[in-house]
Each structure stands twice: as C-alpha cells, then as structure tokens.
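seq as requested:
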Amino acid sequence: MKPITLDGRGLNRAQLAEIAHGAPVRLDPAQMPAVQRAADFLADQVKKQEPIYGVSTGFGSNADKLLGAHRLRTGLPGASASSDSVLEELQHNLIITHAVCVGEPFTPDVVRAMMAIRINTLMRGHSGIRPVVLEAMAALLNAGVVPVVPRKGSVGASGDLAPLSHLAIVLLGGGEAFYDGERLPGADALARAGLAPVKLSHKEGLALNNGTAQMLATAVLAIEKLEELLDTADLAAAMTLDAFAGRLRAFDPHVHALRPHPGQVHVAANLRRLLDGSSLSDIAYHLVPRFRQWQPESWATADQQALGFDIGWDWVPFNQRHGREKFYQRFRPFRGGKKHQPQDSYSLRCIPQVHGAVRDALEQAKRVVDVELNAVTDNPLLFPDLMDRSPNAAEAMDGRERLQKAIEIEDQVVSAGHFHGMPLALAMSYLKAAIPVLASISERRLNKLVDPATNDGLPPFLIGNEDGTESGFMIVQYTAAALVNDLCSRAHPASVYSIPTSANAEDHVSMGANEGRHVLEMTTDLAQVLGLELYTAAQALDYRRDMINAARQLAREADAEALAAKVLGAPLPGHPDRPGFLAEVEALRGELAAAGEFQPGRAVQAAWAALREAIPFMGRDRAMDGDVATAVRLVEEGRLLSAARAAQG
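struct tokens:
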C-alpha cells in the first residue's frame, strides 16, 4: 500500500481509513523544522526557568505545584535513585499512571487510526514534541505494532488521556501490544519489531496523551461504515418497494423540490435509480393477484402445480359500483393483493424523509470530523513565532508595548481547551439518535412483509404453510425488533452527562469517547437489521414476481374461464351478470397476456441475484441461522451493494 504523508494539515477521512486498514505513514520532511522549532523553543524556556503548565508544573489539580531542581524524597528511607531529571520523570509518570483503561481492547484498525491522528496533530509544530519521538511513533505504526488499548476509560476531556497513555506507554517499553497476531509485553513487541524505547523530554508525555484521538478515530471509522450502510438501507428499501409493488410518485423530483433537504433529495433520487426498469412498482392494482395456499386442484398442468402457491382475486359485483362507475372505468373491478389506494404506508412512502434525515446527520458529523482531523488538540499550545505573526494590533500599540506583549511567556505558551471533545461528542450524539431511526424504519418494512394484514397479498410469514406446520420468516422479525430495541436503549446521549474529574479542576467533560465508541459499535447492529430486511425482502420479491408472472402465464395459455376460476365472488353460470363478468375477466386476461415479464428494478435485480447465489429461496421451513449469518455477512462485505452499483453502471 502507498504511504500516506502526514503534515498536520492535509489528512482526510479516506486517508485515515487507509491507514487504519494497513497503509504505512510518512512524515512530511517539510514540516519537521516547525516541529523542531517548537521543541527548541520549549527547551529554551525551561532553561530560563519559566513556569509552564505540564512542563515545570504538575497536571490538573496539581497545576499549582512548581517543580524544583532536586527531589525532596531523596532523603526518604529506601528512596531509589533516578537518572532522569524531575521534568523527565514528570512526563514518564504521566503516561504510566494514566494508562488505566479497562475492558476488551480496541481492534487494530481503531488503534492504528488513533496513532495516525496523534502523529498528524503533533506535526503542526505547536506541541513541543521532538521529531525523534514522532519518528518513533511512525516506526511503531509502520512496523505493525498495535498497542493494547482497552475500550473504556476516557471522559473526553482532557482529551482521551487514559487510552492515549496506553498508546504512548508502548513507546516507552511498557504496557502491552499485539505483534504478528500475538499479545506481548510492550518491550517484547518493540524488540521483535527491531525498535527501541524512547525517553520523553519536556511536555512530550502531555503531547502524547492530551488529545481527542480515540473519539476521532472511532468517529471516522463509524462514518466510513455508515456511508455504506446508508446506501445499503436505500437498497433494502428499494427491494422492499418492489416486493410490495409500491407507488413511486412520492419520490418524484418535483415533489422533493418543495422541501429540499439535501439528504431527502439524495435518497429520492437514489430510489429512482435503484428502481429504474422495474415493472413491479407502479403496476396497475388489478393486475396484482393475492396469495392463496396451494391445493391439489389449484392448477391444471404439472408446471403450474410446481409453483407451490395459488393466486386469486375478488370481483366487485355490478350492484356495488354505484357512485364509483368512473373509478371502475379506469381500474378493472378485481381486488387482488394491492388495495386501491393512492399511497403506501409511511415506512415506504417516507423513505426519503427518514433516510434523508439520517444522511443529513451524517453530513454534520463529517463536517465536524473533517475539521478535527487537522486540528491541534493538546494543551498548552506553543506559539514560538508569535512575535513574527502578530501585526494585527500594531496600530494600537507603540513599538515598546508591542515587544513587551510578544515576549511574555503566557502569550507564547497558552493554556486553552482544545482537548475538550464536545464538538465531536455532540456530532456523535446526533448519529446515536439517527442510527436507531434508520434501523427502526427498516424493521417496520420487514414487519409489513411478514404480516398478512399489511403485506398486500403476500403469504403470511412468506411461506406456503399448507399443513400449518411452518413458521417461515416469523422470527426473523423478532430478531430485528430485539436489535432495534437494543439500539434505542443505547441512543441516550452520553454528552449531556458530565462527571467532573481531577478534584474538580476538570469540572466539565464531554464523554465524547463513549459517544464515538457507541456509534461505532451500533453500526454493527444496524448492518444486522439491514441484512435481515434484505433477506426477507428477497423472499417476498420471489413471491410477488412469481405470483404476478404466474397470472400472466395463465392469461397467455388459457381462456377467460380458466382465469375466472381464480376469481372469488363471480356470478354463477346462468346468472344475468355472468356474461358481463366474463367480459371483464377477458379484459383482465388480455391486459396480463399483453404485458412483458414482470421484473424488479435492474439494480434491485442484481442485488437479489447476488443474495440468491448465497441463500436459496425458502420453499419450506429449514434451519435459518446460517441464512441469517450469510445475509449479514453480505451486507458487511458490501457484496449486495456492489452488485447493485455495477448494475447501475
């Protein structure tokens, strides 16, 4: 893989994803002088004995403790000698005491993304870290050494202190790391990779662990997954629409021009593309038969008997059409699977409004993340060249005042709050609320498909069940419901619940690390719900297409009497309405016979075919656990989406 150059300014989400998935990094040589300049500036200020937070003072609530030149504890009984200076010991102790996360380790992609983010922000030259430490971090990343970073322990201000300390401790030869798939002590992992531990200098511990890298890494990787899952959700919705023989006018461009939310407009257009070429959607109501259970006498030929289902319509008698004559001039008086109504339910008709709103939430998160990727997020911030960069106030100050202003250490070493993760936390809170919405509407569509009261003439639970022994897809909906409930229960925003830390010196925190971790984990459940909808929609699509095409074939091969046998409520032979009824059946037969073969949209057909390569149609109950696992895997691997995209060209 081609190396990604890190310079502190040009990192984007796609590049970070590449690094997360294995691409090496390269430090931009042109940026190294700025990094060295900040480190030299800091060393010079230390020589001048300037009081600098986190360099010559303690951290957090210990910020009022100035470090001396000698250790007071050397006089204590049993005190061990140290070759490190007090300032070096401060940085070393910061890392080893802050690496206290708990839980399962993050996956390597998250940890690699964290490392790259931290290197990139330190490359800006405002943190005081030496180039040699950045080179050591890059070497660690490129060698495939993955520090063990347990998932829980950051409150999102001051940055992700604890998880970033787990990253940094391996640089020092401590902690644990994965190398070649094996979990090792950090020192052993370094040795096997041919790397040496580093010793930290002024502020370098603080530079390494004081930032938003965990929450940002999980946010970027969650966004990467959600971009594909949003397209998958549109595909699942399109397949379900074809399975319902749904109405497409709700997705017309002139409709959405009247309420032009960007995500909504995008989804409507995407649905039109996915359903292009469909002869199922917008089909005339009267052409759609409803499912009837197969009976030995259902069909006349062996080929027809092999269908495994029967079809039928109800006829509307002449004496029930009073006041509706004009309607029945346009629509034939046969009631099959589709009700004569001009609109589908909300979970179908409002797909652009719901999916689109989730897309808009994702776009907001992307905007925040794109800013954060090249932001400096540690503290304090160094401005070694501030004298050369501060002409704006020149008109208000004479030369002496301007010089005095520029050389004050507090102007060049500024304690601020860029480590606070609230921008990311709120963006992730928005996504946490959006993900269950997308999963919920998917589950509602799945539920409509299996429920005979709402599935527009499809078989109950999408199975023939002639003998009453089969459950079909009944319990698939249960699993989807359980997943949606779990997502909803995890959607509570962590960002609204700050718990003060560091003896109230850090009295408001973002909890952004929890938000990012939650969102990344929730994408897995969302993928599972969408996989269940696609699995179910494919079964429904088979039934819908085959039922309509069976009616078409019967119309082509038989006369009106044969088709009339599929119609309930027909007048008996000899009844005065019988000739009129047969004339209407003949008109229905002619319309069906003249139609081409009924098919879903081209992209939907391609996705259906890709799914059917892995999961056959379920004509009878069978063990479904393997099918479900396969459907989810097809979504996670993007195979169905790739097939649909290829069909669209």
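The mean pLDDT is 92.
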